[in-house]
């Protein structure tokens, strides 16, 4: 297996693996973290930064499905860095760390959209049985204060660098991909118009699919730009529960090799081709194809 030539900086347990071409190899791209930790100071008057925590206000915290909530927070507008003031910036894909003040543990979360001019950020948060910060965030109410630090660059995205981008996500792992796709289609550039995206997402059951706030825009992008964006939704088990919104198609089963070959248009090969090769063998995948994976280990 090929290894990434990138140096490995300090990391947390959240990883975004990537592969540069289906048959080229696999690498892992980690969060680009500054040399700070949960011991970073809390500053309430300085612009938000990855080097310190900033108190922000919870605007709302609404149920969005089994064990998930849509969390809205507000940063004071005067604490938002202006263009050129922050070396990271708010281009996709970026995240922030949120700290549980009770036990002094921090975890990274990706805003669904960028931060607006009023300082609002929106997150899709899942509560795991052993997830300290997720459980803590689910308990927050409107008016409560929490601390975050960021932005932190998760992936140094550059428009026009790839012909095809294949995004494979599970559960709340869709959040960085939603941020990227939304940025590309809501703020198109000449460079981004030639890049095609395929988003393949899996959830355990239909009712556990991403909420309407995520799915509706993605479905709209797929309908408006069918030549540039494909959306494929999977569930482990179709238990008869209802998805958050009407979805065009929903496939049952975990995403595997056969699904990927079909979605990517790779023809099946017989045993004779696998053993003896094919004189007319030609890859249907561009050499400038980026694969990004985000979600639980399975």
UniProtKB/TrEMBL annotation:
Top EC group: oxidoreductase
Domain of life: Eukaryota
Transmembrane segments: 12-33
Single annotated GO MF: cytochrome-b5 reductase activity, acting on NADH
FAD-binding FR-type domain residues: 51-158
InterPro entries associated with the record: CBR-like, Cbr1-like_FAD-bd_dom, FAD-bd_FR_type, FNR_nucleotide-bd, OxRdtase_FAD/NAD-bd, Riboflavin_synthase-like_b-brl
PROSITE patterns: FAD_FR
Keyword Kinase recorded: no
tRNA processing keyword on record: no
Membrane topology: Single-pass membrane protein
Cofactor names: FAD
GO CC, alphabetical: mitochondrial outer membrane
Enzyme Commission (EC) number: 1.6.2.2
Keywords of the record: FAD, Flavoprotein, Membrane, Mitochondrion, Mitochondrion outer membrane, Oxidoreductase, Transmembrane, Transmembrane helix
Residues that hold FAD according to the record: 107-109, 126, 133, 175
UniProt-annotated location(s): Mitochondrion outer membrane
Pfam families: FAD_binding_6 (PF00970), NAD_binding_1 (PF00175)
Main location: mitochondrion
Family stated for the protein in its record: Belongs to the flavoprotein pyridine nucleotide cytochrome reductase family.
Protein name as annotated: cytochrome-b5 reductase
The organism's taxonomic lineage, starting at the top: Eukaryota, Fungi, Dikarya, Basidiomycota, Agaricomycotina
